[in-house]
Amino acid sequence: MPRPVLEQGPERRAPVAERLVLVGMMGTGKSTVGRLVARRLGWRFVDLDEELCRRSGMSVAALFAARGERGFRTLESQCLLEVLERDDASAVVSVGGGAVLDPRNRARLARAGAVAWLRARPQTLAARVGGGAGRPLLAATAEQGTTELVLEELSEARAPLYAAVADTVLDTDDLAPEELAEGLLKALPALGSDVGPQASPDGSPGASGAGAEG
Asked: Is 204 a member of any domain?
């Protein structure tokens, strides 16, 4: 179930009802849970990694290979800015796990709407991502047997950054996606939304896609 709303920083504004943003490590279920929540609300769903791949015509792994992590992060930040500046429809947005590394992105996220941090233990993340196929930061860890160690290091480094932008935290280790989606829906009123659970006319979210990095 959702933890209490985290204390807001001095530069935060009240979350808007029209957007729910999901942050957290790869393997926490952002894409799966985001689609479920979007479907229930009748909102658009945007997976930032999928949007970036659509625009570039390349996979996340290919972008990393061609541009390096720094080049990938630059493209990711540009894509995030454009997605968050849209005002055409209510949306659930799943953000790649490393987007919070850029302080400008953290400022954008803190003002983007209601932000939920989906969190899980490194052991859980390792079990979910398996060999790390399509995830550049885990490219060599499966053979070396270091996947869990790398995920633990990444989690520790990023935790304060997720906390800085999050309005609420959900631990995903022992809950099914449907339970997590229900927890988010119940938390929305406390996050500044007056929208209750509802189904979209066709029972499906808008855009969809599986994130690779996040």
From this structure: no
Are 141 and 132 in contact by the 8 Å Cβ rule? The answer is yes
- Asked if 39 and 92 touch (Cβ cutoff 8 Å), the reply is no
pLDDT score at 79: 94
Q: Any idea what the CATH number is for the domain that residue 166 is in?
A: 3.40.50.300
10 part of a folded domain: no
Range of the domain at 178: 19-189
In a domain, residue 201? The reply is no
Indicate the number of domains in the chain: 1
Report the first-to-last Cα separation within the chain, whole angstroms.
22
Domain membership flag for residue 1: no
**CA distances in angstroms from 112 to 20, 30, 84, 91, 179, listed in the order given:** 8, 17, 6, 11, 25
The C-alpha atoms of residue 12 and residue 35 are separated, in whole angstroms, by: 26
Which residue is associated with the tokens 């080049």?
71
Q: Which amino acid is at 168?
A: T
pLDDT, mean over the chain: 80
Name the least confident of 49-58, 80-89, 117-126, 127-136: 127-136
